[in-house]
Amino acid sequence: MSAAAAFPSWAILEPFVFRRDDDASFPDETKAPVRASGTTSWGAPFRIAFSFAEPPRVSRLYVQLPGFPGPDKQTPLVILATHRHLTLLRVATELPNFVMVQDFFIYSAYNPSSLQRLPPCTEPSGQRRRGHLLPYPKDHEGVERRILAIRSMGLLCRGEGEEFAVAELKLFTSRSRNKVHADIFFLKSAVPAGLCGEKWSSMRVPILHSGNPDEDDIRQLSLWNTDDVIPIDRWLCWIDYSRGVLF
User: Fold this and answer.
1) From CA 188, how far away is CA 201, in angstroms rounded?
2) d(Cα 178, Cα 70) in Å, to the nearest integer?
3) Looking at the structure, do residues 242 and 139 belong to the same domain, yes or no?
4) Whether residue 130 is found in the same domain as residue 113
5) Number of folded domains that form the chain
6) Are residues 125 and 81 both part of a single domain?
7) Which structural domain, as residue segments, surrounds residue 63?
8) Comparing C-alpha atoms, which of 128, 56, 116, 63 is closest to residue 85?
9) Sheet with 164-173: strands ordered across
10) Contacts of 17 (CB under 8 A, 6+ apart)
């Protein structure tokens, strides 16, 4: 069966990733015909395989992670988001010097045999920014990879092409405690090739309210904890089940 023929028009994807490190337990092409391989920025190879089923049956993602810590110690690969024909994956591990490293990959149903590794985010976090003007001056730009908060990340795909954006949201309360801003870190693909830009970008925007916010509104926003990120039309919506929706 070809990879193209293996794709249903839509699928219900199990969020749990099934790890099968040895060849005997990793599904063969008859069971999981949609396959791709990748290599992390620290040189670790891995393979994935999709086993698609017509809804209401559930489709599965299998992964082979040789050389990674065992599943009782770490969960190296997770599905972060899906939208249209794209899937956002995160691969991470802890190095021997106790430093956490992470890579992000885009999988496209239009190019089912490959994974696109995204460049690392080197944008400084909110604690290292001043005011509302971003990006930070070039002579202050960080050169270290920043660990992104995966619960606050979303994927937005525009139409049926390869144009997409990956974004992370961080809320920042002003020193006066009377305003809340959103720091948005994002990476956009280039059109039409679907190639990512050289680096991430960022912007700081104020949180706009429908009325005049009182102290409790500000306090609730300062306690924001993203539970889910959902693409709707041309928007990414960040959801806190206790406090509402930001978009």
Assistant:
1) 9
2) 47
3) yes
4) no
5) 2
6) no
7) 1-117
8) 116
9) 153-157, 164-173, 180-188, 201-206
10) 61, 62, 63, 75, 77, 78, 79
